[in-house]
Amino acid sequence: xxxxxxxxxxxxxxxxxxxxxxxxxxxxxxxxxxxxxxxxxxxxxxxxxxxxxxxxxxxxxxxxxxxxxxxxxxxxxxxxxxxxxxxxxxxxxxxxxxxxxxxxxxxxxxxxxxxxxxxxxxxxxxxxxxxxxxxxxxxxxxxxxxxxxxxxxxxxxxxxxxxxxxxxxxxxxxxxxxxxxxxxxxxxxxxxxxxxxxxxxxxxxxxxxxxxxxxxxxxxxxxxxxxxxxxxxxxxxxxxxxxxxxxxxxxxxxxxxxxxxxxxxxxxxxxxxxxxxxxxxxxxxxxxxxxxxxxxxxxxxxxxxxxxxxxxxxxxxxxxxxx
Length: 323
Description:
Layout: H1 12-18, H2 29-35, E1 43-50, E2 59-65, E3 71-76, H3 81-93, E4 103-106, H4 115-124, H5 126-132, E5 135-138, H6 146-165, H7 172-183, H8 196-201, H9 206-209, E6 218-221, E7 233-242, E8 245-251, E9 256-260, E10 264-266, E11 282-283, H10 286-289, H11 292-301
Parallel strand pairs: 1-4, 4-5, 9-11
Antiparallel strand pairs: 1-2, 2-3, 6-7, 6-10, 7-8, 8-9
């Protein structure tokens, strides 16, 4: 503390280093907008978050593009370096060839994924990163890891959606997925009021916003090959695969999950019967749904492969329900 009083100590950095109470002030929206990277995917912020420990996939890995604030969420059963490597490699393999990732930044101070995990990952992916000229770095002390802030936002939104729909912990994955999909469609302060989806894809978000529905509401769906006399079956709406669709719905009568593009919604929330859970639900699309990891990772992470259109090719459900 005596260093602060020395008249010949003019270095501002040295003064700050001895002042443990110093806190970096939050940059205003104008400064953040002016200092963010120009090209998308140049700098990626990443971090892990935890969900209920009773879930099979109890962690989620968040990646945020520093330029557009666009984010991807991957659900995993562990946070070890091998799992993190697989997620990063899959994400990178789906990027357009012209995209150049320069840095992937980690906080390194999380209780779930800290400095030791960061060092293990750096050693494990040393050759992979050198070949692609990608650096794994810790977030500078002068900056905040954007993934950390996004995790807090997703927690708040996901919990609010589940509480409003009166759904238990088994619906956390669906709530977090939908929270992320909606977050990229709404205006962002650091982008001057533009949405991350607009910045990342250079597309208008109006038609994607029009497809948003209330999480946990009822949706009535008729099978594609069903006769006209057959009534539509009631399903529970559990969000979307990517921003704008397709919808994820659950049929409690058959305990089957499926993806659909169209349905008749009743967005009034009614309490479910006690004990109703989604934890053991099976997917109609066995190729992608048999392994919950593959479905939860791929479509949420890479919604670009899904065409959100209203033509006849996407009419009705993608998969007929197995009764």
